[in-house]
Amino acid sequence: MSHAHDHSNAGSHDHRLTHEHPLEDYSARKHPEFVVLEIGGDLGALVVHTDADMHGVEIEISPEHDHRRRSHKQVLERSINGRPAFTAVFDGLAAGAYALWDAGRARARSVAIEGGLVTELDWRTPKRGPAERTSPGASGASRAPGNAAALGGA
Fold this sequence. Notes:
The protein has strands at 2-9, 15-22, 43-50, 58-63, 71-74, 76-80, 83-94, 96-102, 105-113, 117-122, 141-145. It is an all-beta fold. It is globular, with a radius of gyration of 20 Å. The protein has no helices and eleven strands. Helices cover 0% and strands 51% of the residues. The protein has a domain at 43-127 and 139-147: Immunoglobulin-like, CATH 2.60.40. A five-stranded mixed sheet has the order 6-7-3-10-11, with no helix packed on it. A four-stranded antiparallel sheet has the order 5-4-8-9, with no helix packed on it.
């Protein structure tokens, strides 16, 4: 992807060049780098795991009490334990309840964020084989102490 534009120089000579500059869609590339999370004290983080078809989609988050105050993150391709993973990572979230939005519609409500912890939501489609079982809460939220090394880094 690229865009063309004009460089004009209003200096002592007449010089016009038009050329292409490549644009990189941030979500288009893989993100092997480690994720550093701003957590601790009253700040927590949220990792939303999605299927590959959500790659590049913006997920919005808002405090549960104020749905007009939204911010967003793109679902990026990362690596977890050497396997592709599609995640949106929200950090620096004040402890409290949040709503998550996909295409302008509420997808999750009352997601609890706790200071110093990483909450994970699993929006992936369950893949069930003959021997697989689903445990209670498998598609819900889980919490773990922050660990930046657990997400990213090939």
